[in-house]
Design brief:
It is a single chain. The protein is of the alpha+beta class and 159 residues long. The chain has four helices and four strands, in the order αββααββα. It has a four-stranded antiparallel β-sheet. 30% of the residues are buried.
Amino acid sequence: MMSSGLRWLWLTVVVIAVDLATKYTVLANFALYERKEITSFFSLIYVRNYGAAFSFLNDAGGWQRWLFTGLAIAVCIGLLFWMRRLPAKDGLQAGGSALIIGGALGNLYDRTVHGFVVDFLDFHLGQWSWPAFNVADSAICVGAVLLVLASFRKEDKAK
């Protein structure tokens, strides 16, 4: 395990811990839709997301909870098998995968325990507002970017 990409699973644990800690802080200190302005372009707001990214399928009637739960489990299992085959030194792919798994499991926890995902990070400029998101969403996005960057690396042809 220590010589495989699974060595990077510590990053998954960090993502889950930070994600759940921030979400529970929001749940304990905010009423639903309560907003606290931090800067002119950033606020904290407690919203519930019953769908996926950018509230996709947010109002689909409940079946989407199970679709996204199954999808998260399948993606995590697939990435774990892939990470097992990666060398530990491949930080872009293994680290990116670990971030995606951490984010997927953080949001999976919310879906199974609460029935929705807790979102609270809100960036805005004038009337324009980016959909609220959370630490898990951020980890998934950063992980995906790392995987894309890894795909542009030149392979060692002498192997």
